[in-house]
Amino acid sequence: MHLTTPLTMMGFFRKSEGTWFTQRAVHHFDSVEDESGESNLTIEVLNKNDPRVQEICDSQGIDPNLATGGASFAWQVNLDIRELSSGNAAILVDVPDTENTKIGKLIRNQGYVETIPVVSRYNFTDEGVLTIDTNYDNNQGQERCWFINDDFRVRVSSVRMMNGINLMTYCSERRCVSDDTLKQMIEANKQRLRN
């Protein structure tokens, strides 16, 4: 199967839209605490005129006209059927470089490592590997993400404190099938069995 890899942040957001089942392995280098587990990640693409995009640009002192759009990322424990909580969500806004759209800034209303508004730098390799570097008040984070195929992607990240790497995370993510698609698949299988 041919994979078209996104080479812009908005292309990456569009390819990532939907719900993903995440299996996460976390390695702490300074404790025995284990945060490995399973969760769902729901991604919604936001156009550049979305009020949330405008608000985050304004709060960070960024001209909203430079933004191409954004995405809402919400996560919850796997099999949790409650509505998504804004407390477990972040909005990311894409501000690409004017000369090279494979690099740019991500403006976030809250970071992953420290829940403060942050500005990250990103870049895409020619093979479609996305790298995001974020400097927080007390930490530096780096995340890499790439698609294996249209419905499976991998994320690896590290957090570096002043004394060196503090934790590393590996996530494998599979796209979840929507209820409508699942019903269609069941009906198609029933029809196949009848024939």
Describe this structure in words.
The structure is a single chain. The protein has 195 residues and is of the alpha+beta class. The protein has helices spanning 9-16, 51-60, 179-194; strands at 18-28, 37-47, 69-77, 89-96, 103-108, 118-124, 130-135, 140-149, 152-161, 164-175. The chain has a 10-stranded antiparallel beta barrel.
N-to-C span: 28 Å
CATH superfamily: Calycin beta-barrel core domain
Structural class: alpha+beta
What average pLDDT do the residues reach? Answer: 86
Enumerate the spans where pLDDT stays under 50 for 5 or more consecutive residues.
Answer: none
- Reading the helices and strands in chain order gives HEEHEEEEEEEEH
How is the main sheet built?
A: 10 strands, antiparallel, barrel
Strand order of the largest sheet: 1-2-3-4-5-6-7-8-9-10
Taking all Cα atoms into account, the compactness measure Rg is 18 Å
User: With helices defined by DSSP (H or I, 4 residues minimum), what is the helix count?
Assistant: 3
Number of domains: 1
